[in-house]
Design brief:
Layout: H1 8-22, H2 28-35, H3 39-43, H4 49-55, H5 69-83, H6 89-95, H7 100-107, H8 113-121, H9 128-131, H10 139-144, E1 148-149, E2 155-156, E3 176-179, E4 182-184, H11 189-199, E5 205-210, E6 217-224, E7 227-238, H12 241-244, E8 254-259, E9 270-273, H13 274-284
Parallel strand pairs: 7-8, 8-9
Antiparallel strand pairs: 1-2, 3-4, 5-6, 6-7
Helix pairs in contact: 5-8
């Protein structure tokens, strides 16, 4: 990604300024509103929002309310139902009502929560759809033995270190990534458009329109507190496809691609390389 990213000290200063205005550490939404920075820009320097707040010398806001374990598990189950998979700590942090720490105080390690939920949901038909999304219990033993399993709990045998013959009567897929329900890397421009839609909020963009003609997309992005600006976006699988397709560089502000492979890209054209973005966002969810 070749957009100008704030330095770590700039992020910390912005957190301090927001805290000074509020009289307390800011929430993520309060920080984004006051600073004009995006969650992605923070995660380029810190593994989580809480770490960034602590690095600024502040203590993230928390509550000491005693919560019924059933209330916590119901909230966790609603997130599973919504995203159709078991959430990581960071996914729950962004979408859930409570903190991951509250769950770990009540139930132990984060990895134990699916089993706790299964016990809670036993005999409750209203949670049957969520239970169906949980890993099969004996799959953990399979993992310990050296195999892996997918999000449904089915064991996956290690792939042989060689290529197989391509079959002509069916589609091909990119490498497995399993990012928020997207099981494989994009292999074309359509996949890039879909993936951009998945992370558009974290990158700080608001899409106004998508069209068939050039440029593909009109969006707005926040440039300062309370200030937004229009940008023209072209989607490409690889950035140099922009050149190969004969697009005029002055007709676009930003290329969104899966792979940036155009060293001579005009300096005024920003490039968002989604493969790099996913590495940052995925590492923050571990």
């Amino acid at each position: 990604m070749t957009t100008n990213l704030p330095e770590q000290d700039e992020v910390l200063s912005a957190i301090w300024e927001a805290a000074k205005t509020l009289g307390r550490p800011p929430s993520r939404s309060e920080f984004k509103s006051s600073s004009g920075m995006t969650e992605y820009q923070v995660l380029k320097h810190f593994s989580s929002w809480r770490e960034a707040v602590r690095a600024a010398g502040l203590e993230p806001h928390s509550t000491n309310l005693l919560l019924d374990p059933a209330v916590l598990l119901e909230d966790w189950g609603e997130i599973v139902r919504r995203i159709r998979r078991i959430p990581t700590r960071d996914q729950y942090r962004r979408n859930g009502t409570y903190s991951a720490g509250v769950f770990e105080k009540n139930f132990g390690p984060w990895s134990s929560i699916p089993a706790k939920f299964r016990e809670f949901a036993e005999g409750r038909q209203e949670w049957a759809d969520v239970v169906a999304l949980l890993p099969i219990e004996n799959a953990w033993a399979t993992l310990a033995a050296g195999s892996s399993f997918d999000s449904t709990g089915l064991a996956i045998s290690p792939l042989p270190n060689r290529c197989h013959t391509k079959l002509d009567d069916r589609p091909t897929y990119g490498n497995p990534i399993d990012f928020r329900g997207l099981r494989h890397e994009p292999v074309n421009e359509g996949g890039v458009v879909f993936l951009f839609g998945m992370v558009v909020r974290e990158l700080g963009y608001m899409v106004e329109a998508v069209q068939a003609g050039f440029p593909d997309c009109e969006a707005k992005r926040q440039i300062d507190a309370g200030k937004w600006q229009r940008v023209r976006i072209e989607f490409e699988f690889e950035s140099r496809n922009f050149r190969d397709h004969g697009h005029p560089p002055d007709g676009c502000d930003l290329i969104v691609c899966w792979r940036h492979n155009w060293p001579d890209c005009p300096r005024h054209l920003e490039v968002v390389e989604l493969s790099a973005v996913l590495k940052t966002l995925s590492s923050s969810e571990e």
